[in-house]
Specification:
Mean pLDDT is 96; it is low at 1-5. The strands form 7 sheets. The protein has an 8-stranded mixed beta sheet. It is globular and about 90 Å long. The longest helix has 28 residues, at 552-579. The protein has 3 domains: 35-133 and 197-275, Aldehyde oxidase/xanthine dehydrogenase, a/b hammerhead (Aldehyde Oxidoreductase, domain 3, Alpha-Beta Complex), CATH 3.90.1170; 291-461 and 649-804, Aldehyde oxidase/xanthine dehydrogenase, molybdopterin binding domain (Aldehyde Oxidoreductase, domain 4, 2-Layer Sandwich), CATH 3.30.365.10; 483-634, Aldehyde oxidase/xanthine dehydrogenase, molybdopterin binding domain (Aldehyde Oxidoreductase, domain 4, 2-Layer Sandwich), CATH 3.30.365.10. It is built from 22 helices and 29 strands. It is α+β, with helices and mostly antiparallel strands. Helix 7 (219-230) crosses helix 8 (255-268).
Amino acid sequence: MQENPKEYRWIGKPVRRSEDRRFVTGKGQFLSNLRFPDAAHVAILRSPYAHAKIRNVDVSRALRQPGVKVVLTGREVKDMIKPWPHLIRVPDYYGIAVDKARYPGEPVAIVAASDEFTAQDALELIDVEYEPLPVVTRIEKATEESVPLVHDDFEKNIAWHKNFVYGDIDRAFRNADMTVSERYYFHRYSSTPLDLTSCVASYDKATEELTIWDHNQMSPMYHARYSEALNVPTNKLRIINPDIGGGFGQKVHVYPYSVLIALIAKKLGGSVRWISDRLGDMSAVMHQPDRVTNVEAAVKSDGTILGLKLVIRENFGAFLRHPEPQNVTRTMPNIIGCYKIGAISMDATGVFTNTCPSGPNRGYGQQHACFAVERTVDAIARRLGVTPERVRFTNFVPPESMPFETPMGSTYDGGNYPLALKKAMELVESEKVRARQKEMREKGIVLGLGLACTVEGGATAMSFARLWGLEEKHAAGYSSPAESAHVKMSPDGKAVVAMGTVPQGQGHETVASQIVAEQLGIQPSDVTVMRGFDSLTHPYSGAGSGTYAARFSQLGVGALLGAAGKIREKMLLIAAHRLKVDPSELKMGDGKIALREKPDVSVSVRQIARIAHNMLAFLPAGMEPGLEAVYTYAFPYTQPVGNDMRGNLCCSYANLAGAATVQIDIETGNVKVDKLVIVHDNGRILNPLIVEGQVIGGAANGLAGALYEQFVYSDEGQLLTNTFVDYLAITSVEMPKVTLDHMETPSPFTPLGAKGCGEGAGILLPALIGNAVEDALAPFNVRITELPLTPNKIWEMLRQSRKQN
């Protein structure tokens, strides 16, 4: 890696995405496009009930149907695999209902047949005897004495409970001039990737080898888990990820389906293929959990926030599956946001309900926390009668305090939070907006201005397990996350790269080629990055390989630099030997290695590659031939978490400031976003085109959750929004133009100074839009305490306001 970033030839440049050509020309290798001519096809029978005992499952008629090869029920699956492992106490989970159906859409039986139509028809021939049971779907009802238990061994439906205290919270409240209390509800939604959940498994009886093609964005981490569940040795288990059309966290939870399909492949001794449908994906793969947060803030009269008390109630759905309860704990490293809040307590409880099990969605719980904290900041401003920005500027962590250690032990690695908000306000023209706001209100037009800020923790550490409840004696070895990369240069000077990351559209191939080209003095077009992931050919680390938590820019980059750096050093040694100089006298770039003081004296990269591979007599004595290296990078600044529950649990902390203006039609409740400004600082930008796409994509996710998308259950437990007819996924029509401004505060800790960029805008937008809508509705004394802000919800709030007045 070159010392001066200004000398970079490729890093930080807007290189166009190399992978897009195959996508836009229809050449992507998505799982649903792959053909397995002899594969059996799978269909899944799902429970129509949210809660019911399964008295009997009769599959005899289905098995007599011509073309049906096998039918599996929950009781059979239970005898064939172990429950899914976790690091804390959870109910047994097999991915299929065994004795009870606990949410609508839960698999009850699986059919494999000669074709998809026969498999689907056979589902109608399976007779299931259900005994319907009472249902609970709502967080605050779940723990009441009269409600049914989702799992008999978990009293009051409490799945998990922890209490965390950081700093002197009692002192903070003693010294406060006032307290501000609010209750917030953050709803269920997801990112609904266009690429449906799919899986193909193939078992070779002769070799006892099992191959799984799936969509899991954490396949390297789940390789050992698949092995344990299926009782297949890791050296006999191969996992392949082809191109994945969107993950957003949801593709973590494909693992139960992958195992179920693999079971059938083992039973048949051949190949089995399953492609989900939208109904199955929406109802039964994964939902972002909903949450109730009660916030109490200790505040001085000048707006200084001394401490926060949070009481969180989270809906895990019907099962607590790995990696939950991370939706709660994931927020903790940056729970105070951009503010120098000295003390915080969090009483967190997760409950079971008869709803789809929860899991990661882009931002993974950080949007829940940001909504609660940023809405509370606006509530403090309202209580004090000052502008929202004044409270923020009073409480920002100043740039001169960086790196800044939070009460929880996080190390914020740089950023100018006040400047980011000032820029956002200038770009949205806040003074003009407020002047115009008064004029428009006099004309009966409702206009609102919202501000919000957030910190995005990137690349999470394995030591999070301690916060889940893993005992210290077991958690002591969990610390840094890690990632692996393999780089090989061929005799013609071209390079091939394989990584442990599992991309789902983020542009990893392009950025990896930029970094390797920079290290080896070649062009990005000279670097081929192997697509997807294959456990047989790609290196990976058991300490977290995969793509989630915006980890590529910090950990993946570290692995690439390490592997390519090994080759670079070897090439310099060969060139020095050939030119009869010391390696320190050489520089590499533009396809050659030359003397620093005499650039005309050089040897080409291609010549060095030929020497390393073919002309071995020109190698330094004792040097191993070839140009190939594997490197596993472990982030050095995270450590095990002890009994105090403190620690730096993320590798970096990007920050964002946002400003938005909205217009609201008070007759219909419709919200129109006029202006949307985001000022974004993710450290050193590796490729501005890709960062821009990631930030705007995250903004779309966050705006969708703020205004449109939601999973709604009836009191009987039926999911009412399980198709795109009623689940209002955002489109380009609803997406406003985004004014995006970048700041670059390189991290002193990550390999290239880069931080995460994929989740921040999705974290920011729900709070930002909530603040803007409340500002617009201030004349009506409407308070925004829950999402999404649909027209009917706003119309009803206005109606209630008029009624009270």
